[in-house]
Amino acid sequence: MSLMTREAATRALTGAVLTTTLLAGAATLPATAAPHPAAPAPPPAPAGTPGADASHESLRLQREVTRVLKDAGFIGITVRVRDGHRKVYARAGEAELNTGRPMPLGADLRIASVTKAFVATVVLQLEAEGRLSLDDAVERWLPGVVSGNGNDGRRITVRHLLQHTGGIHNHTYSDETGDTAADFERTRFDHVDPERMVAGALRHRPDFPPASADDPEPDWNYSNTGYYLAGMIIEKVTGRAWAEEVRDRVVRPLGLTDTYAPGDDPYLRGPHAHTYQRFRGSAGWTDTTVQNLSWGGAAAALISSDRDVDRFFTALLDGRLLPAAQLAEMRRAVPVGDDFQGAFPGLHYGLGLMRQPLSCGGYTWGHGGDLEGSTVRTGFTEGGRRSVVVAATGKTADDGQLIRAERALQKLVDQALCESVR
Question: Where would you tag: which of 12, 131, 217, 349 has the fewest CB atoms within 10 A of its CB?
Answer without folding.
Answer: 217
